[in-house]
Amino acid sequence: QVQLQESGPGLVKPSQTLSLTCTVSGGSINNNDYYWSWIRQSAGKGLEWIGCIFPSGNTNYNPSLESRVTISTDTSKNQFSLEVRSLTAADTALYYCARTNILRATRSFDYWGQGILVTVST
Amino acid sequence: DIQMTQSPSSLSASVGDRVTITCRASQSISRYLSWYQQKPGTAPKLLIYAAYSLESGVPSRFSGSGSGTDFTLTITSLQPEDFATYYCQQSYKNPPTFGPGTTVDVK
Fold this sequence. Notes:
Number of helices of chain B: 0
Order of helices and strands of chain B: EEEEEEEEEEE
Oligomer: heterodimer
Distance between the termini of chain A: 39 Å
């Protein structure tokens, strides 16, 4: 059974950089059948896809956030990470990591982490 | 971006009721539509993908239909554990986008 677990700070100051990590267990992030996403949820914007990383290392980002985000992997630790720069209060949200099965034509998110609440505030 | 809308935004129902939730896309998305269930304090859970395919382990009382721009999630006989918020999500075009959600609460 695949499990995903987010980790990182719960409070970050405006203008700083947020770094979150998703640790995957029960499966390898190198498996070519899957790719890995970050999604956030806030009261103001609902569920918002941030971006994803493929087994090849290629990435794809939401154009609304592309200039401020980077997703990367650490295959030795079976983890992938999210960096969001130049934070504002609007980045306050519950951040999820999630998996997509490439073998399914429709790119749904079949496994999710439990989420981590990130607050941007002084 | 493709905009997703849902109706109603909330509904009240009783155990045993048939519940129908509608999702509409701002342009045709073929069958690239998924449905999720979210309970307070937990992550969304995939129920249906490709508009009508039931995710493994999801009870058969859940069903999906539709294609193009209009989709429906139906719960044939609502169970106590089904009171939750339901979201649709399109994956036809990047970025994937979600609907605003429909909350099903106790009548």
